[in-house]
Amino acid sequence: MKSIEELIANHPFLEGVNDAFLKEMAGCARNAAFDEDTYLIRESQDADQFFLIRNGSVALESYAPGRGALVFGTVKENDFLGVSWLTPPYRWQFDGRAKESVHAVAFDAKCLRGKCEANPAIGYELMKRFVPALMRRLKAARIQMMDVYGGPTDGGVLESAE
Amino acid sequence: MDASPDIVGATATTPASYTVVNKRWEFNGTATLHLARACEKDSWSPAAPGQFAMLYALGVGEAAISFSGLPETPGRYVVTVRRAGAISDALTRLKRGDGLGLRGPFGVGWPLDSVKNKDVVVVAGGLGLAPLRPIIEYLAHDRGVANSVSVLYGARSPDAILFERDLSRWRNDAGMNVRVTVDAAASAWRGDVGLVTTLIPEIEFRPKNSVALICGPEIMMRFAAEAMEDAGLPQKAIWLSMERNMKCAVGFCGHCQFGSYFICKNGPIFSYDRIRDTLLVREL
Questions:
Q1: How many domains does chain A contain in total?
Q2: What is the torsional sign of CA A156, A162, B4, B8?
Q3: How far is B185 from chain A (nearest CA, A)?
Q4: Mean pLDDT, chain A, as a whole number?
Q5: Which residue of chain A comes nearest to B198, CA vs CA?
Q6: What are phi and psi of B226, to 5 degrees?
Q7: Any CB–CB contact under 8 A between B21 and chain A?
Q8: Is the pLDDT of residue B5 over 60?
Q9: Where are the domains of chain B?
Q10: Measured between CB atoms, does A135 come within 8 Å of chain B?
Q11: Residue A150: its pLDDT value, please?
Q12: Residue A162 falls inside a structural domain
Protein backbone atom coordinates (compact mmCIF):
# COMPACT_ATOMS: atom_id res chain seq x y z
CA MET A 1 0.00 0.00 0.00
CA LYS A 2 1.33 3.37 -1.01
CA SER A 3 1.95 6.10 1.54
CA ILE A 4 0.14 9.42 1.30
CA GLU A 5 3.43 11.01 0.25
CA GLU A 6 3.74 8.53 -2.62
CA LEU A 7 0.12 9.04 -3.65
CA ILE A 8 0.44 12.79 -3.94
CA ALA A 9 3.88 12.54 -5.55
CA ASN A 10 2.35 10.34 -8.26
CA HIS A 11 -0.62 12.60 -8.88
CA PRO A 12 -0.22 14.59 -12.14
CA PHE A 13 -1.42 17.80 -10.50
CA LEU A 14 1.64 17.89 -8.24
CA GLU A 15 4.14 16.67 -10.82
CA GLY A 16 7.44 18.44 -10.38
CA VAL A 17 6.93 19.54 -6.76
CA ASN A 18 10.11 18.84 -4.81
CA ASP A 19 10.26 16.13 -2.17
CA ALA A 20 10.56 18.52 0.75
CA PHE A 21 7.39 20.34 -0.23
CA LEU A 22 5.56 17.08 -0.88
CA LYS A 23 6.50 15.92 2.60
CA GLU A 24 5.15 19.16 4.07
CA MET A 25 1.93 18.83 2.12
CA ALA A 26 1.52 15.16 2.99
CA GLY A 27 1.25 16.22 6.63
CA CYS A 28 -2.11 17.79 5.74
CA ALA A 29 -3.38 14.91 3.60
CA ARG A 30 -5.36 11.74 4.10
CA ASN A 31 -6.81 9.03 1.92
CA ALA A 32 -10.50 9.37 1.16
CA ALA A 33 -13.09 7.21 -0.57
CA PHE A 34 -16.65 8.05 -1.58
CA ASP A 35 -19.46 5.79 -2.70
CA GLU A 36 -21.51 6.56 -5.78
CA ASP A 37 -23.94 9.46 -5.29
CA THR A 38 -22.36 10.67 -2.06
CA TYR A 39 -21.18 14.27 -1.86
CA LEU A 40 -17.56 15.33 -1.55
CA ILE A 41 -18.55 18.98 -1.17
CA ARG A 42 -21.85 20.76 -0.53
CA GLU A 43 -22.82 24.27 -1.55
CA SER A 44 -22.62 26.89 1.24
CA GLN A 45 -20.73 24.61 3.61
CA ASP A 46 -17.21 25.37 4.82
CA ALA A 47 -14.59 24.80 2.15
CA ASP A 48 -12.30 23.06 4.55
CA GLN A 49 -10.80 20.53 2.14
CA PHE A 50 -9.25 20.18 -1.28
CA PHE A 51 -9.16 16.91 -3.21
CA LEU A 52 -6.84 15.26 -5.69
CA ILE A 53 -8.99 12.75 -7.57
CA ARG A 54 -7.14 9.45 -7.99
CA ASN A 55 -9.92 7.58 -9.75
CA GLY A 56 -13.61 7.95 -10.39
CA SER A 57 -15.42 11.12 -11.40
CA VAL A 58 -17.32 13.89 -9.65
CA ALA A 59 -20.31 15.82 -11.03
CA LEU A 60 -20.32 19.55 -10.25
CA GLU A 61 -23.89 20.59 -9.61
CA SER A 62 -26.17 23.34 -8.45
CA TYR A 63 -29.76 22.89 -7.37
CA ALA A 64 -32.51 24.83 -9.13
CA PRO A 65 -36.04 24.79 -7.68
CA GLY A 66 -38.39 22.96 -9.99
CA ARG A 67 -35.54 21.63 -12.12
CA GLY A 68 -33.54 19.63 -9.64
CA ALA A 69 -29.76 19.36 -9.64
CA LEU A 70 -28.14 20.75 -12.79
CA VAL A 71 -24.75 19.34 -13.73
CA PHE A 72 -22.40 21.85 -15.36
CA GLY A 73 -19.09 20.03 -15.17
CA THR A 74 -17.27 16.81 -14.47
CA VAL A 75 -14.02 16.43 -12.55
CA LYS A 76 -12.22 13.22 -13.38
CA GLU A 77 -9.20 11.23 -12.25
CA ASN A 78 -5.86 13.03 -12.28
CA ASP A 79 -7.67 16.34 -11.76
CA PHE A 80 -8.42 18.32 -8.60
CA LEU A 81 -11.66 19.26 -6.89
CA GLY A 82 -12.04 22.42 -4.87
CA VAL A 83 -10.99 26.03 -5.34
CA SER A 84 -13.09 27.81 -2.72
CA TRP A 85 -10.68 26.77 0.05
CA LEU A 86 -8.12 29.20 -1.43
CA THR A 87 -9.95 32.46 -0.79
CA PRO A 88 -12.25 33.81 1.94
CA PRO A 89 -14.95 33.20 2.96
CA TYR A 90 -13.79 29.57 2.36
CA ARG A 91 -17.27 28.36 1.44
CA TRP A 92 -18.21 25.89 -1.32
CA GLN A 93 -20.08 27.50 -4.20
CA PHE A 94 -21.44 24.26 -5.69
CA ASP A 95 -22.09 20.61 -4.91
CA GLY A 96 -19.64 17.87 -5.88
CA ARG A 97 -21.28 14.44 -6.17
CA ALA A 98 -19.46 11.18 -6.79
CA LYS A 99 -20.83 9.80 -10.08
CA GLU A 100 -19.24 6.49 -9.26
CA SER A 101 -16.91 5.16 -6.59
CA VAL A 102 -14.25 7.83 -6.06
CA HIS A 103 -10.81 7.53 -4.49
CA ALA A 104 -9.07 10.75 -3.63
CA VAL A 105 -6.47 12.38 -1.47
CA ALA A 106 -8.15 14.93 0.79
CA PHE A 107 -6.13 17.85 2.12
CA ASP A 108 -7.09 19.74 5.25
CA ALA A 109 -7.47 23.24 3.83
CA LYS A 110 -6.64 25.13 7.01
CA CYS A 111 -3.51 23.03 7.48
CA LEU A 112 -2.44 23.58 3.88
CA ARG A 113 -3.08 27.32 4.02
CA GLY A 114 -0.96 27.38 7.16
CA LYS A 115 1.91 25.64 5.35
CA CYS A 116 1.65 28.18 2.52
CA GLU A 117 1.70 31.12 4.95
CA ALA A 118 4.73 29.67 6.73
CA ASN A 119 6.54 28.86 3.51
CA PRO A 120 5.29 30.97 0.56
CA ALA A 121 7.38 28.86 -1.82
CA ILE A 122 4.90 26.02 -1.26
CA GLY A 123 2.05 28.40 -2.00
CA TYR A 124 3.80 29.55 -5.16
CA GLU A 125 4.21 25.94 -6.32
CA LEU A 126 0.50 25.40 -5.77
CA MET A 127 -0.44 28.63 -7.57
CA LYS A 128 1.66 27.58 -10.56
CA ARG A 129 -0.62 24.55 -10.81
CA PHE A 130 -3.94 26.09 -9.88
CA VAL A 131 -3.78 29.13 -12.17
CA PRO A 132 -3.32 27.24 -15.49
CA ALA A 133 -6.00 24.75 -14.45
CA LEU A 134 -8.38 27.56 -13.57
CA MET A 135 -7.60 29.27 -16.88
CA ARG A 136 -8.53 26.07 -18.72
CA ARG A 137 -11.76 25.76 -16.74
CA LEU A 138 -12.61 29.44 -17.27
CA LYS A 139 -12.05 29.12 -21.02
CA ALA A 140 -14.21 26.01 -21.18
CA ALA A 141 -16.94 27.67 -19.10
CA ARG A 142 -16.93 30.71 -21.37
CA ILE A 143 -17.31 28.58 -24.49
CA GLN A 144 -20.08 26.59 -22.81
CA MET A 145 -21.82 29.88 -22.01
CA MET A 146 -21.88 30.74 -25.71
CA ASP A 147 -24.15 27.74 -26.31
CA VAL A 148 -22.48 27.19 -29.67
CA TYR A 149 -23.98 23.81 -30.48
CA GLY A 150 -27.60 24.78 -30.59
CA GLY A 151 -30.03 21.97 -29.99
CA PRO A 152 -33.66 21.07 -30.09
CA THR A 153 -35.72 24.11 -30.99
CA ASP A 154 -37.20 25.85 -28.04
CA GLY A 155 -40.85 26.65 -28.58
CA GLY A 156 -42.33 27.15 -32.02
CA VAL A 157 -44.35 24.56 -33.83
CA LEU A 158 -43.63 21.10 -32.53
CA GLU A 159 -43.74 18.34 -35.10
CA SER A 160 -44.63 14.85 -34.09
CA ALA A 161 -41.97 12.22 -34.60
CA GLU A 162 -42.71 9.75 -37.34
CA MET B 1 -45.51 19.66 -50.72
CA ASP B 2 -45.97 18.36 -54.27
CA ALA B 3 -44.86 14.74 -54.57
CA SER B 4 -43.98 15.08 -58.25
CA PRO B 5 -41.89 18.18 -58.78
CA ASP B 6 -41.28 19.20 -62.32
CA ILE B 7 -37.50 19.03 -62.29
CA VAL B 8 -35.72 17.13 -65.03
CA GLY B 9 -32.35 17.16 -66.74
CA ALA B 10 -30.14 17.70 -63.72
CA THR B 11 -26.79 19.44 -64.12
CA ALA B 12 -24.42 21.06 -61.66
CA THR B 13 -26.64 24.11 -61.80
CA THR B 14 -30.02 22.46 -62.34
CA PRO B 15 -31.55 20.35 -59.60
CA ALA B 16 -32.60 16.77 -60.14
CA SER B 17 -35.87 15.54 -58.75
CA TYR B 18 -35.63 13.47 -55.57
CA THR B 19 -38.21 11.91 -53.30
CA VAL B 20 -38.08 11.39 -49.54
CA VAL B 21 -38.24 7.63 -49.08
CA ASN B 22 -37.59 7.56 -45.35
CA LYS B 23 -37.47 10.10 -42.55
CA ARG B 24 -36.34 9.83 -38.96
CA TRP B 25 -36.54 12.53 -36.35
CA GLU B 26 -33.22 12.62 -34.49
CA PHE B 27 -34.72 15.01 -31.96
CA ASN B 28 -37.12 17.89 -32.15
CA GLY B 29 -36.22 20.09 -35.11
CA THR B 30 -33.57 17.79 -36.58
CA ALA B 31 -34.43 15.06 -39.07
CA THR B 32 -32.54 12.56 -41.20
CA LEU B 33 -33.94 12.18 -44.71
CA HIS B 34 -33.30 9.26 -47.04
CA LEU B 35 -33.62 10.49 -50.61
CA ALA B 36 -34.11 8.57 -53.84
CA ARG B 37 -33.71 9.84 -57.38
CA ALA B 38 -37.14 10.32 -58.93
CA CYS B 39 -36.06 10.04 -62.58
CA GLU B 40 -33.81 7.14 -63.57
CA LYS B 41 -32.50 9.13 -66.52
CA ASP B 42 -31.04 11.82 -64.27
CA SER B 43 -27.36 11.39 -63.61
CA TRP B 44 -26.29 10.28 -60.16
CA SER B 45 -22.79 10.19 -58.69
CA PRO B 46 -21.76 8.50 -55.46
CA ALA B 47 -20.80 11.04 -52.82
CA ALA B 48 -17.53 10.96 -50.91
CA PRO B 49 -17.51 11.40 -47.11
CA GLY B 50 -17.51 15.13 -46.36
CA GLN B 51 -19.15 16.26 -49.61
CA PHE B 52 -22.42 18.17 -49.67
CA ALA B 53 -25.49 18.73 -51.84
CA MET B 54 -27.66 21.73 -52.58
CA LEU B 55 -31.15 20.76 -51.48
CA TYR B 56 -34.02 22.70 -53.01
CA ALA B 57 -37.15 22.97 -50.92
CA LEU B 58 -39.66 23.56 -53.68
CA GLY B 59 -40.89 27.11 -53.78
CA VAL B 60 -38.75 28.10 -50.80
CA GLY B 61 -35.08 27.95 -51.78
CA GLU B 62 -31.80 26.05 -51.73
CA ALA B 63 -29.50 25.21 -48.85
CA ALA B 64 -26.16 23.41 -48.69
CA ILE B 65 -26.45 20.24 -46.62
CA SER B 66 -23.66 17.72 -46.01
CA PHE B 67 -24.32 14.06 -46.58
CA SER B 68 -24.76 12.20 -43.30
CA GLY B 69 -24.79 8.75 -44.83
CA LEU B 70 -23.62 7.14 -48.03
CA PRO B 71 -25.95 4.35 -49.11
CA GLU B 72 -24.48 1.92 -51.61
CA THR B 73 -27.70 1.84 -53.63
CA PRO B 74 -27.33 4.02 -56.74
CA GLY B 75 -29.65 6.98 -56.82
CA ARG B 76 -29.81 7.31 -53.02
CA TYR B 77 -28.46 9.89 -50.57
CA VAL B 78 -28.86 10.52 -46.84
CA VAL B 79 -28.84 13.97 -45.26
CA THR B 80 -29.52 15.32 -41.79
CA VAL B 81 -31.14 18.72 -41.50
CA ARG B 82 -31.68 20.97 -38.50
CA ARG B 83 -34.45 23.52 -38.60
CA ALA B 84 -32.70 26.88 -38.51
CA GLY B 85 -34.40 29.03 -41.13
CA ALA B 86 -37.10 29.00 -43.80
CA ILE B 87 -35.38 26.52 -46.13
CA SER B 88 -34.24 24.05 -43.48
CA ASP B 89 -37.65 24.39 -41.85
CA ALA B 90 -39.30 23.39 -45.13
CA LEU B 91 -36.84 20.50 -45.55
CA THR B 92 -37.48 19.14 -42.06
CA ARG B 93 -41.22 19.32 -42.75
CA LEU B 94 -40.94 17.02 -45.75
CA LYS B 95 -42.73 13.73 -45.32
CA ARG B 96 -42.17 10.35 -46.88
CA GLY B 97 -43.19 10.64 -50.54
CA ASP B 98 -42.59 14.38 -50.78
CA GLY B 99 -40.37 15.75 -53.52
CA LEU B 100 -37.43 18.11 -53.51
CA GLY B 101 -34.61 19.17 -55.80
CA LEU B 102 -31.00 18.17 -55.36
CA ARG B 103 -27.75 19.31 -56.96
CA GLY B 104 -24.48 17.62 -56.22
CA PRO B 105 -22.45 16.03 -54.80
CA PHE B 106 -20.13 18.99 -54.46
CA GLY B 107 -16.85 19.85 -52.81
CA VAL B 108 -13.73 18.15 -51.51
CA GLY B 109 -14.35 15.47 -48.90
CA TRP B 110 -12.43 14.14 -45.91
CA PRO B 111 -8.89 12.94 -46.75
CA LEU B 112 -9.44 9.19 -47.00
CA ASP B 113 -5.82 8.54 -48.00
CA SER B 114 -4.50 10.46 -45.00
CA VAL B 115 -6.24 8.29 -42.40
CA LYS B 116 -4.62 5.03 -43.45
CA ASN B 117 -2.65 3.42 -40.60
CA LYS B 118 -3.08 6.54 -38.49
CA ASP B 119 -4.59 7.19 -35.08
CA VAL B 120 -7.73 9.01 -36.16
CA VAL B 121 -9.22 11.50 -33.70
CA VAL B 122 -12.69 12.65 -34.68
CA VAL B 123 -13.91 15.75 -32.84
CA ALA B 124 -17.54 16.69 -33.43
CA GLY B 125 -19.86 19.26 -31.94
CA GLY B 126 -23.63 19.38 -32.22
CA LEU B 127 -24.88 18.73 -35.73
CA GLY B 128 -21.23 18.57 -36.83
CA LEU B 129 -21.39 14.82 -36.26
CA ALA B 130 -23.54 14.52 -39.41
CA PRO B 131 -20.83 15.36 -42.00
CA LEU B 132 -18.41 13.11 -40.07
CA ARG B 133 -20.74 10.13 -39.95
CA PRO B 134 -19.85 8.84 -43.45
CA ILE B 135 -16.12 8.71 -42.73
CA ILE B 136 -16.71 7.17 -39.30
CA GLU B 137 -18.86 4.53 -40.99
CA TYR B 138 -16.09 3.99 -43.53
CA LEU B 139 -13.59 3.47 -40.70
CA ALA B 140 -16.03 1.27 -38.78
CA HIS B 141 -16.70 -0.88 -41.84
CA ASP B 142 -13.02 -1.61 -42.33
CA ARG B 143 -11.24 -1.43 -38.98
CA GLY B 144 -7.96 -2.23 -40.71
CA VAL B 145 -7.78 1.15 -42.42
CA ALA B 146 -6.81 3.18 -39.36
CA ASN B 147 -4.58 2.15 -36.48
CA SER B 148 -7.11 3.46 -33.96
CA VAL B 149 -10.22 5.62 -34.02
CA SER B 150 -11.43 7.91 -31.25
CA VAL B 151 -14.70 9.79 -31.59
CA LEU B 152 -15.11 12.76 -29.24
CA TYR B 153 -18.56 14.29 -29.40
CA GLY B 154 -19.94 17.33 -27.63
CA ALA B 155 -23.61 18.24 -27.55
CA ARG B 156 -25.67 20.88 -25.85
CA SER B 157 -27.59 18.49 -23.62
CA PRO B 158 -28.37 14.75 -23.41
CA ASP B 159 -31.55 15.19 -25.47
CA ALA B 160 -29.57 16.85 -28.27
CA ILE B 161 -27.18 13.95 -28.85
CA LEU B 162 -27.21 13.02 -32.51
CA PHE B 163 -27.01 9.42 -33.79
CA GLU B 164 -27.07 7.86 -30.30
CA ARG B 165 -27.49 4.36 -31.71
CA ASP B 166 -24.55 4.87 -34.05
CA LEU B 167 -22.38 6.15 -31.21
CA SER B 168 -23.14 2.95 -29.25
CA ARG B 169 -22.50 0.78 -32.27
CA TRP B 170 -19.19 2.46 -33.03
CA ARG B 171 -18.17 1.96 -29.40
CA ASN B 172 -19.42 -1.58 -28.89
CA ASP B 173 -19.18 -3.20 -32.31
CA ALA B 174 -16.46 -1.26 -34.14
CA GLY B 175 -14.05 -0.99 -31.21
CA MET B 176 -13.80 2.78 -31.41
CA ASN B 177 -13.05 4.89 -28.37
CA VAL B 178 -16.27 6.90 -28.32
CA ARG B 179 -16.61 9.66 -25.72
CA VAL B 180 -19.60 11.95 -25.35
CA THR B 181 -19.88 15.10 -23.29
CA VAL B 182 -22.64 17.67 -22.93
CA ASP B 183 -22.65 21.32 -21.89
CA ALA B 184 -25.22 20.82 -19.14
CA ALA B 185 -27.40 18.02 -17.83
CA ALA B 186 -29.76 16.93 -15.10
CA SER B 187 -28.24 14.80 -12.35
CA ALA B 188 -29.64 11.61 -13.91
CA TRP B 189 -27.11 11.96 -16.76
CA ARG B 190 -24.24 9.57 -16.01
CA GLY B 191 -21.92 10.78 -18.75
CA ASP B 192 -19.46 13.64 -18.90
CA VAL B 193 -20.34 17.31 -18.67
CA GLY B 194 -17.93 19.83 -20.13
CA LEU B 195 -16.37 21.11 -23.30
CA VAL B 196 -15.50 18.51 -25.95
CA THR B 197 -11.84 19.59 -25.95
CA THR B 198 -11.54 18.42 -22.31
CA LEU B 199 -11.79 14.86 -23.66
CA ILE B 200 -8.65 15.18 -25.79
CA PRO B 201 -6.13 14.56 -22.98
CA GLU B 202 -8.04 11.43 -21.99
CA ILE B 203 -7.51 9.50 -25.21
CA GLU B 204 -4.40 7.78 -26.48
CA PHE B 205 -2.90 8.68 -29.84
CA ARG B 206 0.55 9.12 -31.32
CA PRO B 207 0.69 12.85 -32.13
CA LYS B 208 3.14 12.45 -34.98
CA ASN B 209 1.16 9.63 -36.50
CA SER B 210 -2.36 10.93 -36.07
CA VAL B 211 -5.02 12.72 -38.04
CA ALA B 212 -7.74 14.88 -36.52
CA LEU B 213 -11.08 15.36 -38.29
CA ILE B 214 -13.11 18.20 -36.82
CA CYS B 215 -16.61 19.44 -37.56
CA GLY B 216 -18.93 21.65 -35.58
CA PRO B 217 -19.62 25.30 -34.94
CA GLU B 218 -16.65 27.33 -36.15
CA ILE B 219 -15.81 28.65 -32.70
CA MET B 220 -15.66 25.09 -31.38
CA MET B 221 -13.53 23.99 -34.35
CA ARG B 222 -11.02 26.79 -33.69
CA PHE B 223 -10.58 25.69 -30.08
CA ALA B 224 -10.52 22.00 -31.01
CA ALA B 225 -7.89 22.55 -33.73
CA GLU B 226 -5.80 24.58 -31.29
CA ALA B 227 -6.12 21.80 -28.68
CA MET B 228 -5.04 19.16 -31.20
CA GLU B 229 -2.07 21.29 -32.20
CA ASP B 230 -1.19 21.71 -28.51
CA ALA B 231 -1.36 17.92 -28.24
CA GLY B 232 1.39 17.68 -30.84
CA LEU B 233 -0.37 17.22 -34.18
CA PRO B 234 1.07 19.17 -37.09
CA GLN B 235 -1.40 21.66 -38.60
CA LYS B 236 -1.52 19.75 -41.88
CA ALA B 237 -2.80 16.66 -40.01
CA ILE B 238 -5.79 18.59 -38.66
CA TRP B 239 -8.82 18.78 -40.98
CA LEU B 240 -11.88 20.97 -40.60
CA SER B 241 -15.22 21.08 -42.36
CA MET B 242 -16.03 24.72 -43.10
CA GLU B 243 -19.44 26.24 -43.59
CA ARG B 244 -20.41 29.47 -45.29
CA ASN B 245 -23.39 30.75 -47.26
CA MET B 246 -23.10 28.60 -50.37
CA LYS B 247 -25.26 29.48 -53.35
CA CYS B 248 -23.99 28.21 -56.71
CA ALA B 249 -21.84 25.42 -55.17
CA VAL B 250 -19.51 25.42 -58.17
CA GLY B 251 -17.24 28.38 -57.44
CA PHE B 252 -18.92 30.98 -59.65
CA CYS B 253 -20.98 33.24 -57.45
CA GLY B 254 -18.46 34.03 -54.73
CA HIS B 255 -20.92 33.91 -51.85
CA CYS B 256 -18.77 31.41 -49.96
CA GLN B 257 -15.42 33.03 -50.67
CA PHE B 258 -13.10 32.51 -47.71
CA GLY B 259 -9.85 34.35 -48.25
CA SER B 260 -8.42 32.94 -51.45
CA TYR B 261 -10.71 29.90 -51.36
CA PHE B 262 -14.26 29.12 -52.36
CA ILE B 263 -15.57 26.82 -49.68
CA CYS B 264 -17.96 25.11 -52.09
CA LYS B 265 -15.22 24.21 -54.55
CA ASN B 266 -11.91 24.14 -52.64
CA GLY B 267 -13.62 22.76 -49.52
CA PRO B 268 -15.67 22.30 -47.47
CA ILE B 269 -12.89 20.16 -45.98
CA PHE B 270 -9.60 22.00 -45.45
CA SER B 271 -6.42 21.19 -43.62
CA TYR B 272 -5.81 23.58 -40.73
CA ASP B 273 -2.51 24.86 -42.14
CA ARG B 274 -4.36 26.27 -45.18
CA ILE B 275 -7.02 28.21 -43.30
CA ARG B 276 -5.69 28.86 -39.80
CA ASP B 277 -4.83 32.52 -40.42
CA THR B 278 -8.03 33.15 -42.37
CA LEU B 279 -10.08 31.71 -39.51
CA LEU B 280 -8.90 34.62 -37.38
CA VAL B 281 -10.00 37.25 -39.90
CA ARG B 282 -13.31 38.75 -38.83
CA GLU B 283 -16.27 39.31 -41.12
CA LEU B 284 -15.07 36.66 -43.59
A1: 1
A2: positive
A3: 5
A4: 90
A5: A140
A6: -60, -40
A7: no
A8: no
A9: 16-106, 112-279
A10: no
A11: 64
A12: no
